[in-house]
């Protein structure tokens, strides 16, 4: 399996974990919610869906009422097929969520992983964020070294382009630092914070509270009014 197809399968499973969808809805969500898939087609999506069905991770269901399906058939149109995640598919997606290897730090894969951080355990989020930061710091060091070697041979516009690329990476590193510190602060607060649970929060020690501890809680995200965060899929950060 190519890296690109692996990312697409991951994203499809993650979206279908939220709710069953037909192909058009899936493509729209992939285009609008996950910017890394802005330029892909149905010719890419449907083979992926067929593979996931063949693996037992998805099932196909009729997406219309019987009379609508009949009308579509009489009009020469295919009735919409809804794709639903199976129990095996959910288990497989959760396994993928727990993976924190180097692939999850790369540009496209990181953007897909970050889109599903709300479903990811806090400790896994931390490992992915820290791995991504290390990868970008390595990239930044190489960019600086390359610029130092070639600065005298570059014209003004090429030099400005090089600086722009470095600034993009530096912005993402700062953004990652904020996220990591927020995740740490949220984790420390949960570990040390006794007292009365907030509205809608389960009491400490209860089964619901234990489940919440390992859920994809995003309460540690920094909130900056009016600030602009870099897009993890920004091509200028590659």
TrEMBL record:
Signal peptide: none annotated. The lineage of its organism: Bacteria, Bacillati, Actinomycetota, Actinomycetes, Kitasatosporales. The keyword Cell membrane does not apply. Transmembrane segments: none annotated. Residues 183-238 are annotated as: Disordered. Gene3D superfamilies: Winged helix-like DNA-binding domain superfamily/Winged helix DNA-binding domain. It holds the Pfam family PadR. PANTHER family: CONSERVED PROTEIN, PADR-FAMILY TRANSCRIPTIONAL REGULATOR. Keywords: Coiled coil. Residues 126-167 form a coiled coil. This is PadR family transcriptional regulator. Residues 12-95 form the Transcription regulator PadR N-terminal domain.
